[in-house]
Design a protein that fits this description.
Blueprint (H helix, E strand, L loop, with lengths): L5 H10 L5 H19 L8 H13 L2 E3 L2 E3 L40 H11 L12 E2 L3 E2 L5 H4 L3 E4 L4 E4 H6 L22 H8 L1 H16 L3 H9 L1
Antiparallel strand pairs: 1-2, 3-4, 5-6
Amino acid sequence: MKVIDLKSLWTRAAAKPKSSTASASTPLLQTVESRIQSDTPSVHLQTHNEIEVEREVASTEPQVVGDAAVIHEDQHEGIDDDDHEAFYDIDWLPHDPGERIAISDYNVNDQAAVRRRYIALGPCQPRGHDFPRKFIGGWRRFVPSWFDTYDWLEYSVKLDAAFCFVCYLFKNKNCKGGNSFVDGGFSLWNQTSKFDTHGSCKSHCLAQEKHDLFSRSGTSIGDALEKLTT
């Protein structure tokens, strides 16, 4: 009968390598974790400086609405308001009074030169023009012989209206009277007495004095008055 040594059996059993559940499951757990990490987007915590940089870039980029880009107002900074001034060339001033701009609309430093240029051109008196007729208590039109009676009178072909040359150049805006021959022009051809009324009104007489002083001196009204006072 063979005697079984129980002590030796227990010793051999303890010496055998154990396949633990933890060792068998470790590779599987690592594989699952690697897949989760690859599928999960990485989260980057932005610093305060990075957020400020992104805001500055977004504020300067134009917003696109359809096919049009909307530019913010702050992108127009640095544009001088003087760039919006009307462009003009003193050597190419319009002769027709209906196409002129007011003397006050010119730069202050250019107004004397503009006046000299217009005085050199003289009033616009297109004597050979075919003046149109219009019905005002009968068919009437501008009569070119009026230029001989009133040397200050001029005519706008564009507007079919009469204007005052000296009032355009020198009339004081604060002085009342005579505006019909400056603003929009006069075109009531059946009321020719208005020519005499305008020629004798205070605002026209003052403008005529300024015109005569300026024409003689060739300088500004202030300089001419200073010379006379001296």
